[in-house]
Amino acid sequence: MTSIGDYTFWDCTSLTSITIPDGVTSIEWAVFSYCTSLTSVTIPNSVTSIGYSAFGDCAGLTDVYYTGTEDEWWNLVISGTSNNNECLTNATIHYNQSAPVHTHSYTSTITKQPTCTEPGVQTYICKCGETYTEVIPALGHDFSNEWTIDVEPTCTTAGSKSHHCSSCEAKSDVTEIPATGHKFVDKTIAPTYDAEGYTEHTCSVCGYSYRDNYTPKKERADISKATVTVAATSVYTGKALKPTVTVKLGGKTLKSGTDYTVAYKSNTNCGKANITITGKGNYTGTKTATFIIKPAKTTISSVKSPKTKQIKVKWKKSAGGVTGHEVMIATNKKFSKNKKTYTVSGTSTTSKTITGLKKGTTYYAKVRAYKTVGKTKYYGAWSAVKSVKTK
Ligand SMILES: [Zn+2]
Ligand SMILES: [Zn+2]
Ligand SMILES: [Zn+2]
Fold first, then answer.
1. Which fold has domain 300-389?
2. Which ligand is nearest to the CA of 129?
3. How far is the CA of 174 from the centre of ligand 3 (A)?
């Protein structure tokens, strides 16, 4: 005796049909209870007993194939303990036959998509509920794309590139891209008087810079080697005199105020005045020069003959610290006949009496002041000429 035990397929809601093998004699209690998708069942005539609620609540059951005769079927249903099996008896009973042989007809769906590295699953399903699956091989990466720069190189650090999979994050052929190196732009800075010159190399990409090719500071020219020329002759005026100076160095005429400054000293009174040239800008050092301030033109006051064979020449006192005066007389206007000169030292003496002259003769006289500097006498201009006839 072969039986299918209690509850064997209980609540198998995916079960749609079943053929109970020939030789089974007993279907025990509740074997197919709640198999709500069950539509077809084949029962062999070897079965002699169907248990309580064996097909209970099999609401979808429509066809029962029984290999025995109608009599045998009713004998089984009546004699068997077939309580609570209305679903079985309500179905269409096909006597003397098994369920028609079913040829599976599958439809397939991809139940798991394959990826580059993981296989997928294709599932085949027949209406009868029969299913099987097939493996879909992993697709493999697709590295046919162009290079992708993963890390840009910089002036000093390497970058990298690779081929990216068109479907996933995978990378292939990771390759180093060498550092680009700096792209220097050179600038030459000329030296100044205060700073060295140099070449500055600056990277136009990252800004890094360095200097080299230093050149020494410029040297300021020494103005003490200059040639100084003082303009014109200076004559006492009572005011401070500042004659123009020309400063030449190395064949070049320097510019006052830009290349040098000028200071004057002792430049009012007659005598030697001092000039100090001080280098400026591109020039350094000092250079001194002098110039002479000559006495002003003397003003003759009078020429008289106070006594026989005498004349007396008088002039206005000269300002500016003169050393003395020179008086010249002659018997003609050109001072070529009987010319005589007399030196009158001292500033305060303002007349000269000349004796021993010819009687009743016209004498011409003129006066000039002088200033002695060292061993040299510097003369002022002659006064106007005045004349007198001697007594
Ligand atoms: Zn099928
Ligand atoms: Zn991939
Ligand atoms: Zn750089």
1. Immunoglobulin-like (2.60.40)
2. 1
3. 25
CA atoms of 80 and 72, how far apart (whole Å): 11
Global confidence as pTM:
0.52
Radius of gyration of the chain (CA): 72
Cα 154 to ligand 2 centre (Å) = 29
* C-alpha to C-alpha distance for 215 and 195, rounded to whole angstroms: 9
How far away, in angstroms, is 143 Cα from ligand 2 center? 8
Render pLDDT for 245-287 as a digit per residue (tens, 0 to 9). 999 998 999 999 999 999 999 999 999 999 999 999 889 999 9
Which tokens belong to 47? 């079965």
Ligand 3 center from residue 156 Cα (angstroms): 7
Give residue-wise pLDDT tens across range 91-121. Answer: 999 999 887 877 888 999 999 999 999 999 9
Token readout for 84 is 């609570």
Of the options 3.30.465.10, 3.40.50.880, 3.80.10.10, 3.40.640.10, the CATH number for the domain spanning 2-95: 3.80.10.10
Determine the distance separating the centroid of ligand 1 and the alpha carbon of 125, expressed in angstroms: 8
